[in-house]
């Protein structure tokens, strides 16, 4: 007589096990390609599927067992894959969907854990105190299976309670997802997992209590329902690359629109930034002409004026190109820069205006090299605007009191700071935040654009800017903090 005769009943757990192992392998592959909660969700799904497949192997063996001791030993061993199956389901829901009450999971796991301890010491599993009866039951089509009965052990009720707690958790998670407006996930959690657990729990109880003469069908109950779950998960996994590409395109479009909006807001500032070097060029050209009109022209002074003209023209060209780059999608130059050198360049560009206003410049630059990353032209524009703003703030101050102090320093969290302080009339405390708004100015001849442009460009480079009273409460200090080379945002 064949040990395992070929019939439809023996074929069911074999087909179920093969299907479940295929689903497990698919989800392991998907977990390898994904990250975060999605990867954990696919791994847990693979554990559930593989555990259900292993349970199917024991169901197949139990169908054909002939003795009480063999049946009891197999039933006890079958609780190992069943445990992985039962305990993985709630964590799958928590990790992948973020729904359900965690305390229900803890209760369910604790109860099932107690049942497992009982199972380890019972010869006929946690289900039966002892198996007293065994028989072969015939089904249509020539199929037969082994059915047993006997008094239940208290561990059986503890296990039922553990599965019931997890079933309640699944239902609760489905309700949460329904309230979130996620019907597809409700179908996966409530319809698939909840139904599988309910069928497995109810059928096992009926078989073990002697209510029905039937083989265990846990693996068969899971295969169809988990197939539906897998279709949903695979569907989501296939859509992810498409959605990611769409998100990247949309992010590029949003970034481009943001740049265009920013430039529209800065349109007045562009004119302001170009007017500064053009005014300097005009002043130096007029000075050079006046030097030449003298009876004995000083050619060194003429040379100096022409050099200033060349330098200001070069600066105006760089500013125009730098601002024009912002109009193009994704074209903002970025390089490692020494903040000290940037400050010195800005002061040199403003040297003519500072000399004409008899402003003394005092620099206190950190001995450590403060390296930042960004667009050299745009960042030099930030410092230059702060220097010019401070110089203009001292126009009404006695020439002997006109001192401009520029300081650089290293800060915590990988940041660097430049501070420009003056001895001007200062800014009322109520207006200190408003000075960075476009067109806001405290001077009758001010455009209200220099500081606004500096603020915009600083934020563009991941920094921040603010003002406060100057040293000793006199004048104003403008602070700009930028991320150091190790703290640049991606």
What's this, in brief?
This protein is of the alpha+beta class. Helices cover 62% and strands 11% of the residues.
Q: Can you tag this structure with a few keywords?
A:
3 domains, rod-shaped, Heat Shock Protein 90, 13 helices, two-stranded antiparallel sheet, five-stranded mixed beta sheet, alpha+beta, Rhopdopsin 7-helix transmembrane proteins, 490 residues
Task: Outline the secondary-structure elements.
Elements: H1 8-33, H2 36-63, H3 68-97, H4 102-121, E1 133-139, E2 143-149, H5 154-180, H6 183-208, H7 218-265, H8 267-293, H9 299-325, E3 335-338, H10 339-349, H11 351-356, E4 360-364, E5 371-374, H12 376-393, E6 403-410, E7 415-421, H13 450-460, E8 464-469, E9 476-483
Parallel strand pairs: 4-6
Antiparallel strand pairs: 1-2, 3-5, 6-7, 7-9, 8-9
Strand fraction band? 5-15%
CATH topology of the largest domain: Rhopdopsin 7-helix transmembrane proteins
Distance between the termini: 72 Å
Query: Are there runs of 5+ residues with pLDDT below 50, and where?
Result: none
List the helices and strands in order. Answer: HHHHEEHHHHHEHHEEHEEHEE
Structure notes:
The chain is of the alpha+beta class. It has 3 domains: about 10-250, Rhopdopsin 7-helix transmembrane proteins; about 265-330; about 335-490, Heat Shock Protein 90, CATH 3.30.565. Helix content is about 60%, strand content about 10%. The chain has 13 helices and 9 strands. The chain has helices spanning about 10-35, 35-65, 70-95, 100-120, 155-180, 185-210, 220-265, 265-295, 300-325, 340-350, 350-355, 375-395, 450-460, and strands at about 135-140, 145-150, 335-340, 360-365, 370-375, 405-410, 415-420, 465-470, 475-485. It has a 5-stranded mixed β-sheet, covered by helices on one side. A two-stranded antiparallel sheet has the order 1-2. A two-stranded antiparallel sheet has the order 3-5. A hairpin with a 6-residue loop joins strand 8 and strand 9 (about 475-485). Helix 3 (about 70-95) packs antiparallel against helix 6, helix 6 packs antiparallel against helix 7 (about 220-265) and helix 8 (about 265-295) runs antiparallel to helix 9. It is rod-shaped, with a radius of gyration of 39 Å. The mean pLDDT is about 80.
């Amino acid at each position: 007589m064949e040990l395992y005769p070929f019939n439809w009943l023996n074929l069911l757990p074999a087909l179920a096990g093969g299907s479940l192992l295929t689903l497990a392998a698919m989800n392991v592959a998907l977990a390898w390609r994904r990250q975060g909660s999605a990867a954990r969700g696919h791994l847990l799904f693979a554990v559930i599927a593989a555990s259900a497949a292993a349970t199917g192997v024991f169901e197949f063996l139990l169908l054909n067992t002939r003795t009480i001791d063999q049946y009891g030993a197999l039933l006890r061993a079958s609780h190992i894959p069943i445990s992985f199956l039962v305990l993985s389901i709630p964590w799958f829901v928590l990790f992948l969907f973020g729904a359900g009450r965690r305390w229900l999971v803890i209760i369910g796991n604790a109860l099932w854990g107690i049942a497992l301890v009982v199972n380890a010491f019972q010869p006929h599993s946690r289900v039966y105190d002892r198996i007293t009866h065994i028989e072969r039951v015939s089904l249509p089509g020539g199929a037969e299976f082994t059915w047993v009965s006997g008094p239940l052990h208290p561990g059986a009720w503890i296990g039922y309670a553990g599965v019931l707690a997890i079933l309640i958790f699944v239902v609760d998670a489905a309700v949460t997802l329904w309230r979130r407006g996620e019907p597809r996930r409700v179908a996966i959690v409530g319809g698939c997992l909840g139904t599988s657990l309910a069928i497995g729990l109810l059928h096992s109880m009926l078989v073990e209590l002697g209510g029905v003469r039937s083989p265990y069908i846990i693996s068969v109950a899971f295969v169809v329902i988990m197939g539906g779950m897998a279709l949903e998960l695979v569907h989501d996994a296939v859509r992810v690359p498409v959605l990611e590409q769409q998100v990247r395109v949309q992010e590029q479009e949003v970034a481009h629109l943001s740049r265009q909006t920013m430039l529209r807001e800065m349109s007045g500032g562009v004119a302001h930034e170009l007017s500064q070097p053009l005014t300097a060029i005009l002043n130096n050209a007029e000075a050079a002409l006046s030097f030449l009109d003298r009876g004995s022209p000083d050619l060194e002074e003429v040379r100096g004026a022409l050099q200033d003209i060349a330098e200001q023209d070069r600066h105006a060209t760089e500013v125009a190109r730098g601002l024009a780059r912002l109009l193009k999608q994704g074209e903002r130059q970025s390089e490692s820069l020494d903040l000290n050198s940037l400050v010195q360049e800005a002061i040199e560009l403003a040297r003519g205006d500072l000399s004409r206003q008899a402003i003394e410049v005092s620099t206190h630059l950190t001995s450590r090299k403060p390296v930042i990353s960004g667009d050299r032209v745009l960042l030099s524009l930030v410092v230059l605007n702060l220097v010019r703003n401070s110089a203009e703030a001292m126009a009404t101050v006695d020439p002997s009191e006109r001192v401009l102090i520029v300081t650089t320093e290293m800060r915590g969290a990988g940041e660097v700071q430049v501070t420009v302080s003056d001895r001007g009339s200062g800014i009322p405390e109520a207006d200190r935040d408003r000075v960075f708004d476009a067109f806001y100015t405290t001077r009758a001849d001010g455009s209200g654009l220099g500081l606004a442009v500096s603020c915009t460009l600083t934020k563009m480079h991941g920094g921040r800017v603010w003002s406060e009273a100057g040293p000793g409460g006199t004048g104003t200090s403008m602070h700009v903090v930028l991320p150091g080379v190790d703290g640049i945002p991606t």
